[in-house]
Amino acid sequence: MSRTQHHRMMESSVALGKLDLAPGSAAGLDSVPRISGGDPGTEPQDPPNLNGCVPLSHQVAGHKFGFHIGGILQHPDGTVLKQVQPAPRGPREMQFYNTVNAEDCCDPCLLELKNYLPRYYGTWSTPDRPHDLFLKLEDVTRHFIKPCIMDVKLGRQNYDPFASQDKREQQIKKYPLMEEIGFLLLGMRVYNVCSDSFSSYDQHYGRGLVKDTVKDGLARFFHNGVRLREDAVLASICKVQQILHWFQSQQKLVFYASSLLFVYEGLPSSSSPAPLHSSLPVGPAVNESAALSLAADGGQEEKGVREETVEEKGVAENNNNTEVAVPRDCSPPTIYNQYMKARERCSGEGCLHGNSGDGTPEITSGSNSGLWEEDNATWQQRGVLKASANGNQTKPQLERKDEDRERGEEPGRGGGAEGEGGRDVTDVEVRMIDFAHVFQSDSCDQGYIYGLKNLLTALEQILCDAAQSSLSAPTS
Ligand SMILES: Nc1ncnc2c1ncn2[C@@H]1O[C@H](COP(=O)(O)OP(=O)(O)OP(=O)(O)O)[C@@H](O)[C@H]1O
Ligand SMILES: O=P(O)(O)O[C@@H]1[C@H](O)[C@H](O)[C@@H](OP(=O)(O)O)[C@H](OP(=O)(O)O)[C@H]1O
């Protein structure tokens, strides 16, 4: 399919203007070709000529190319290609991206939502298989050198309202705690600064986490083998807060089996101040060094955890991350002080972990409390959060920002950025992905909101635990 044809197809979906994603009523979707090889029973086909595309080397969850229908590739230009899944999932996801990215879209709700998604560049296919469509997406990890990546599925149910009884049972069986916890860690890879390697955690790791261990299981994503990256936890909290605000403000869409993709830079900066409590443990289930040495000792390997092999270490990542500015770590004491100050300003226990009356913990929201707004300013100065960039910009970043401006987007969105006065910041990405089960609605997405609140509580508790550990640690 030529570029023009792709474009035309995109325009025809875009022209719908309004999402109509319910099965059987998907206006315009009939024109979307079904991908070949979609039926498990069909004849095996020759391997496709992928035009230089390769399976995504840093994929942490989901359908894998070559193993499942609907896998993920990386284009030589660095973008991610997600194969359109068999109907109705793939066309539904494609129409979702088309609608949110429609040039004439002026709905403020969708325009804001766009900020939380990977950029969308339309559809792509190889010349020899023009009907095998892929969604061409920004690689959210693209500007990181050692990207630590985590995929967390949100919501109280992993299936949509139109799912068959079999599908419901299959999904519930996989993680019965979904309804109570509201999120599921699908997979992650974490950079270990000591061994200069990644540890990968598959879906079995996440499914093994229960109510009492899910916080520590999550904390492991932020532990680099030496210390907890509190700066990355805090920056993640702020990003998740923004997404929560969006969900609380909209009554148009509901998302089932959709994920948040977290990314932060694992490579430490040489300019980072030495953390005061760097050697503190982060809790029994979170000490990565302990887990790794267990495996190295020939001890019983942990379920769902895999260390990168020596051969793999030598393999360059296919993410075009060659020339980027290294974000500076923020020292844990700074984060700790700011976090505690924020908590003190809060009126008592109920503020950060109170009860909203719907069974989920109440998380302070920036616009209502002033707590996050006020401290965001301080944290920006401290270099924890992204601030307007006006400092010593490196060439690649300047180029990215120009590119952003051309698209009419906030400069630095999704890219590395410096804080006020040219200070580096803790760069974290949190983006929504996987939209195979998005539907129109006329009420808030309570399931997703429930999951977001619980996720925020867990992230905040990780910081609290670290702060408490540092307070009780003996001073030398
Ligand atoms: N835009 C992106 N940038 C970087 N990585 C991505 C991007 N989109 C997807 N990935 C990687 O691919 C994985 C799977 O993505 P996604 O959830 O969209 O696929 P899926 O096959 O629909 O998943 P599932 O099987 O859970 O339905 C993510 O966990 C992430 O590692
Ligand atoms: O984590 P696992 O064990 O790989 O399980 C998959 C996961 O639950 C996906 O979310 C789901 O796709 P949907 O969310 O789109 O339903 C997929 O369904 P599938 O097998 O029907 O593709 C499951 O197999």
Automatic annotation (TrEMBL):
EC assignment: the record states 2.7.-.-
Q: Which reaction does it catalyse?
A: 1D-myo-inositol 1,4,5-trisphosphate + 2 ATP = 1D-myo-inositol 1,3,4,5,6-pentakisphosphate + 2 ADP + 2 H(+); 1D-myo-inositol 1,3,4,6-tetrakisphosphate + ATP = 1D-myo-inositol 1,3,4,5,6-pentakisphosphate + ADP + H(+)
Q: Where is this region: Disordered?
A: 27-51, 385-424
Q: Which InterPro entries match?
A: IPK, IPK_sf
Q: Name one GO molecular function term.
A: inositol-1,4,5-trisphosphate 3-kinase activity
Keyword annotations of the record = ATP-binding, Kinase, Nucleotide-binding, Transferase
Query: What is the superkingdom listed in this entry's lineage?
Result: Eukaryota
- One Pfam family linked to the record: IPK
Any one Gene Ontology biological process term? inositol phosphate biosynthetic process
Task: Kindly list the GO CC terms recorded for this protein.
Answer: cytoplasm; nucleus
From start to end residue, where is composition biased (Basic and acidic residues)? 397-412
Q: Which family does it belong to?
A: Belongs to the inositol phosphokinase (IPK) family.
* PANTHER family in the cross-refs: INOSITOL POLYPHOSPHATE KINASE, INOSITOL POLYPHOSPHATE MULTIKINASE
What this protein is called in its record is Kinase
Q: Which organism is it from?
A: Oryzias melastigma
